[in-house]
Every structure is written in structure tokens, then in C-alpha cells.
Specification:
Blueprint (H helix, E strand, L loop, with lengths): L3 E5 L6 H12 L2 E4 H14 L7 H8 L4 E6 L2 E6 L2 E2 L7 H10 L3 H15 L4 E5 L2 H5 L5 E6 L2 H14 L6 H17 L12 E4 L5 H15 L1
Parallel strand pairs: 1-6, 1-7, 2-6, 7-8
Antiparallel strand pairs: 3-4, 4-5
Helix pairs in contact: 1-9, 2-4, 4-8, 7-8
Length: 221
């Protein structure tokens, strides 16, 4: 029987990098669903479409062919034949992803794609609604989080490494705005599934966070 792991949590919780490491330890694929929303947000920006214009986005999703590929177990994200993996981690695209993810038609299409990718195989999926919507019957569900200040600090350091110059205060402000939007949207808001295990990494380093999640997975299997 396939092993399916659902990891949900807010922006800056380290879901993508931690999930990558956990999936490698478990020898299963990792689907970063947030990258798919980011890819569509980027596509909207590139096409001059307001990421808050639901009608225009509903038309645009019909023209967007979003897919993921794996090479040596690592995911790359594509839109209409172009690899956008290296373009989707900016603050602008992050907020665009949060904006477009509010709309039912966009979410419905993404959920369809995500379920199709995960069907019939062992896989770890991370995002905002994996345990509550995409994989309600996942073998293991985890809600990964940390305090806003800790998440902002991690995101700030990540941006500095990429050459960005945003202040910590601005990063924290944007993170809080993203949390507010993700948790209060009408369609599939960010929330902890009733049967998910809460993992708070505020006081944990990367290795400890990975070890904690593996401990939860082993206990649930």
C-alpha cells in the first residue's frame, strides 16, 4: 500500500526544504504543491494579469499547462514548456501565489493536477490544503509551523543569500499579511486537519525538524 505523507503549514515554515529531506529519507517523491501556485502566479504576472482579478485568472488558467518533472528525485516546475523553477521564489511571486490561490476555479484545477500526480504511488505532498482537501486519506498528516518571528528570520536569511535587500521588518510584515490571507480565504483556507500532528520547529534546527517528522511518520505507519 502506498505511503502518502501530507505536510501543511504557513509560509516560511520550511515545508519545501524539510519535505525534500524527509522524502529522500523515506525514498519517496516529494511534490511541492505551492510551487504550482507560484508558477501560475508568475504566469499571471508575465501576462500582465492582475492576480486579484478572478475573471481574468479563470480565463488564464485555461491557457496554462502546469506540470512537474523529476530528475534524481528533485522536482522542477514548468509552465507551457518553460522551466520556471528558478523564478518562483521571490516575494512578489509569493504574494501572487497567495492571491491566485483564493479563487475556486484555480484551486479546483490545482487539486485535480495534484491528485493525478500522486495517484497510486508513495509520495510526500506539502502545501496549504493537502491533509484537508487534496489527500484527505493520507497515511500521515503533519501541520508544520513556527512562530511568525522565527519564520520571518529564516525567510530573511534566505533572501539575503539570494541577494535581496528587504529588511527583516518588511519580510515579517509580508509574512503576516500572507498568513492572514491564507487562513481567511473563503475556499480551502489554511488550517490544521483534525487528524494531523502539530510539529512546531521554532526551537528546532533543520536536522532536528527532519528527525521529528520522520519520528511522526514511523509512529503512524
Amino acid at each position: 500500500m502506498p505511503l502518502t505523507v501530507a505536510i501543511d503549514g504557513p509560509v516560511g515554515a520550511g515545508k519545501s526544504t524539510i519535505s525534500d529531506a524527509v522524502a529522500k529519507k523515506l525514498d519517496i517523491l516529494h511534490l511541492d504543491t505551492g510551487a504550482m501556485y507560484r508558477a501560475f502566479g508568475l504566469f499571471a504576472i508575465q501576462n500582465g494579469v492582475d492576480t486579484l482579478d478572478e475573471s481574468a485568472l479563470n480565463d488564464l488558467i485555461e491557457k496554462a499547462q502546469i506540470s512537474v518533472k523529476y530528475e534524481n528525485g528533485k522536482q522542477s516546475t514548468w509552465v507551457n514548456g518553460s522551466d520556471v523553477t528558478g523564478l518562483i521564489r521571490t516575494p512578489e511571486v509569493s504574494m501572487a501565489a497567495s492571491n491566485v490561490s483564493k479563487f475556486p476555479k484555480i484551486r479546483k484545477e490545482m487539486v485535480r493536477l495534484q491528485r493525478e500526480i500522486a495517484k497510486g504511488q508513495s509520495m510526500l505532498l506539502d502545501g496549504r490544503d493537502i491533509g484537508t482537501v487534496v489527500l484527505k486519506d493520507a497515511t500521515v498528516k503533519i501541520f508544520l509551523t513556527a512562530s511568525p518571528e522565527v519564520r520571518a528570520k529564516r525567510r530573511h536569511l534566505e533572501l539575503i543569500e539570494k541577494g535581496a535587500a528587504d529588511s527583516f521588518e518588511k519580510v515579517l510584515e509580508e509574512l503576516r499579511a500572507r498568513d492572514e490571507q491564507d487562513m481567511n480565504r473563503a475556499t480551502d483556507p489554511l488550517r490544521q486537519a483534525e487528524d494531523a500532528v502539530l510539529v512546531d520547529t521554532s526551537a528546532l534546527n533543520f536536522e532536528e525538524s527532519v528527525a521529528k517528522i520522520l519520528e511522526v511518520v514511523e509512529a503512524k505507519r
